[in-house]
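Quick note —
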Amino acid sequence: MIMGLFRNSEIKRFALFLAAFCSLCIVVGFLIGIYTGLPVLFVCIVLCSGFWVFTRRRYRALAVLSESIDAILHGNDHLGLDGIGEGELSLLQSEIQKMTLRLREQAEGLRRDKAFLADALADLAHQLRTPMTSIRMLAAFLAKPDLDAEKRLEFSRELEGLLRRIDWLLTTLLKISKIDAGTAVFARNPVCVRDLLQTAAEPLLIPMELRGIEFALHCAADISIHCDRNWTAEALGNILKNCVEHSPAGGSIRVDCAQNAIFTEIIIQDSGTGFDSADLPHIFERFYQGRHSKDGNFGVGLALCRMVLTAQGATVKAENRVEGGARFVVRVYGGRGQ
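Predicted structure written out below.
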């Protein structure tokens, strides 16, 4: 313990100074007289003893802190930072406890992120396995020299469709990753909701026409919201895409808009099969595929939709219509005049 104390240069210098000062006082005291030297000697002994006891107690408290920190670094779940008492060491103890709890929370967050990443990669591999298998089969058929031109054209179109699906999946996952990482930048500009919905529906107009699906947009031209036009159009487009995929031939998709002083509401509904009651709580989860999911549905479109809208302070909810079909309710907060 003594050698440990004197490894500290500050304590060593102070101890030497105190020893020299007390020695000088004792010598001067005994030079004056025996009755002066003895009280001075007693006072110096008390001072040196107090310095020794006080310093030793501080070193013991520091040793407890050091051992506790070492135990924490080696994975001990118990903090073991109790019983130091009050003073600056108590403050240090409190700060170490806060730091330890924060580091444990961060470590737990990293563990969750790693587990999520592993699950996401497993889901991605699973999602890609089916189209990649189909691509390999189509490539093998196309390599046959005796394949007639009609079949070759059919297989080529199917191959192109599969590649487009994979490209869409990877692009969507990159966008989701940007939002997860906090690197996606959302502008906040006034946007006409009617124009926004027309932009979102434009890529789907031909598929709707081919399947005879009626698209009705009921939105006043003076309704506007503050949002990022491109990101929000993609989010609403994913909802419309879901409605198109689940609407029967000859069905209908209707979009209604309303605005009040608090929020702007966009309701998108279709005449399809609706959602299974067990699927409703999971509709916007990443890679989730419901019981009525179509072939080729990766389960990321609606996940991206919710992330984009939530990042801009909006909400989205999915529900079933009483008369049949699905309904999506989007609310963008910041109403009329804002």
